[in-house]
Amino acid sequence: MFVNVIAMTRMTATVLMYETSEQLLFDRYNIAIERMVVCLVIGGGLKLTVAMNILLSCCQVTSWVSCKLDGEQLDDKYGPDSIAWFAVHEFLLTLTLCAVTVASDGRLQAEAQMSVQARADRTTEKAVRRLLTMTYDVVTQVGEQLIIQQDTPELSAFLMRGADL
């Protein structure tokens, strides 16, 4: 969790150090990839991921606006309403990253639950088999069509017990 905060804080500090819109745009895709890695690999919970991505998006939009306030002709370089264009792109990126985080967290939780359930099933099966083995002379496992599932030497020995008589 703390790694998520440190990584996102480092990205935010990097964004705030840019002095021109070219620097911000040039490094924007690298930061977007870093954000994706932080969301998918490091994680840290949905609320934290959303909060950190919103904070980073606000910092990027603020840096873009400060470039315009510093006298850069953003509308001449990037078209009319460049601030709105940049803000919408940041919003869509943040929304996408949050959706990916939700999907990834859901998949990881389902996988963990299935793993725990499989382990519990194996433990229960071993316990039942041990109890049956202590109670009965022969225990074998049969499938849905009543076909023996595994080799059972005990069954062979039990069936052959009276053959020599």
How would you characterize the overall build of this protein?
With 165 residues, the chain is mainly α. It is 78% helix and 0% strand. The protein has six helices and no strands. It has helices at residues 2-16, 21-42, 46-69, 74-78, 82-135, 153-160. The radius of gyration is 31 Å and the shape is rod-shaped. The chain starts with a helix and ends in a 5-residue tail after the last helix.
Q: Give the oligomeric state.
A: single chain
Uncertain runs are: none
Major sheet attributes = none
Structural class: mainly alpha
Measured distance between first and last alpha carbons: 73 Å
Rounded radius of gyration (Å): 31 Å
Task: List the topology elements.
Blueprint: H1 2-16, H2 21-42, H3 46-69, H4 74-78, H5 82-135, H6 153-160
What is this structure, in a nutshell?
It contains 6 helices and no strands. With 165 residues, it is an all-alpha fold.
Features:
mainly alpha; 6 helices; 165 residues; rod-shaped; 0% strand
